[in-house]
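Supplementary Note 3. Input sequence used for the single-chain structure prediction.
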Amino acid sequence: MPATTSEAFGKRVCYKGDWRRQSLKMIDSMPIAGQIGDLRGRGKFEASGIAARNHHYYVVFDGQESFGYLNSGMQFRDPDSQLIGHVGDDSQYESITYRQRTDTFFATVEAAPVPQEAADRKLRSRGLAEGDKLYRPVFHEVKIDPHKGEAEVLRVCETDFDVRSSNKGFEAMEYIETPSGGVFVALCEGNNCQGADHPGHGELVFLVEDTAAEDFDGCLFKTVKTLPVPEVAKFLDYSAMSFYPLSINPKMGDRESLGRLAIASQENAALWVGDFDVDALEFVGEGVTLHFPRDHDCNIRHCNIEGVLWVDDYRIVTVSDRAKEHQPFWCEATDQTLSMFMLPHHYWKGPGLAETDED
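The predicted structure, written as discrete structure tokens, is reproduced below.
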């Protein structure tokens, strides 16, 4: 059974060192169903990703095709908060990110099956047995108009990144502008991008659109780099990611390329936070691991976090999936919810997290 209560990191984490230096502080929280005025007949809001535009949050749900449009003020039954687009059936969306230059969103389908003939060719080229299944994440470029309440899928784009499981593909994605152009940064859910029972070995995948792809009908995003997540983030899974640009780092000089990356784990109810160099597409330092609040007995309370988004350089918001049947009853108190948290105060000083140890 997955670790979802007190097993992840163990209860010792609450008593080892100073818990205040390791834990996030809850600021506010509200079920997504409480924020939307018209639920349009839906009773489940299995949130899997979150993005922001114009003081509103855009949320994807893997159990429906519509997009959540939520006022960032987290108000109860806000008439401005709504479900946009056709409600439909399962979308299988696992993340959403916004690209400003096209004013469009990109929603990620975690992994779609590769046609068996193409899969066999790829397997042969790797010296592997034919007949096994391969999967590739898929990007949907979407135009969302909250004023009309409409959402239109403009393009469905394939990727060239293979995974061996239908539920261990891209779990999160961010669009980042770099000096050489825009790049999509994807986070694999499983260890080594394949899934494993042991913790650690998280991986980022960097992709750009291949506008010169030959013999290809449609749009294709190709992999240009992969990067291991720092070992400090030794998680059982990797469920969410968010990037926040930082313009000044007094410890490293003025480097406009520096940003802060947050990577969440659902199983561990934890958040890794570290500096990231956009020019080099490399981590700067090892970063730190923080924990979402636990109860009086050190049991995990936030069991299903699947989306994370920076509000500013010391606050984040998260969205959560529906609690699983095997999880303890108290997980339902925080499922299908939008929540805001604050980093411990000694991390407010800006970049250089790995070096910030003093009070």
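Confidence is low (pLDDT under 50) at residues 1-6, 354-359. The domain at 11-355 is CATH 2.115.10 (Tachylectin-2; Chain A).
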